Amino acid sequence: MTPTSDDGPHGTVEVDRAALDEELRGTRRRAATADVAEYALRLGDDALVLAQQLSRWIAHAPELEEDVALANIALDLLGHARSLLRFAGSYDGRSEDDLAYFRGEPEFRSAWLFEQENGDFARTIARQLIASVYLFELYTDLQASEEPALAEIAAKAVKEVDYHRDHAAQWTLRLAGGTDTSRRRLLRGLTDVWPYVDELFRDDALIDRLGGIAVRPSSLRERFDDVVAGVLAEEEMSVPGVPPAAGGGRDGRHFPTLGFVLAEMQVLARQHPGATW
Question: Is the distance from CB of 98 to CB of 86 less than 8 angstroms?
């Protein structure tokens, strides 16, 4: 952004569109293939849906500092989503806005974990612990992708997700070691969201076809389990013993809450398509 002082006492702020495009594009020069675009959609939709969920805490968090923290995490995730959706859209010429605002629910590829409602603050933290530990391990390995665009996005994202992971771990310990009520709510939140963990680590035919371009989800499970178990063990907790949910988000079969998330997120763009400020 470039501030100037020629147009009034406070100046104007102009966005350098070329610089913004280059930041989102990185050094990539080739379009995504169909399979790579599908993989980028999975990652982009996870980030986009979680960003939308976390943004609902703005002005509703238990502390003013948490309004800012959760908003910043949501903005980080939105940045990841923009880069991934823009890359995915290079396959067929759709923009990041086309993919975010003008796809129907069955066209989204987000996993069920990210579609879970916020619930109370403890439930949000439980979901955030799982999501951030998973994303950190994912982006750590994706930096070695044979697709340069994905490797570049991952290299930036992993630094931000490292903070998200620390934030979630610290709040997990704070709630678990606080009052009886905060501990009970955290344990209930973990039990509520844990059935949706298994879907994150399922391999499928797309992962097989992509080879060294994608990260094999199952390869992340052991590290994920070790980190989460280590955090919980600090307050003498363990992972819930609950059966996994069916899942299906990668194939367009979504948890019922996603429809409400998309309705809220897409309403303005759909009511005023092509509008500019």
Answer: no
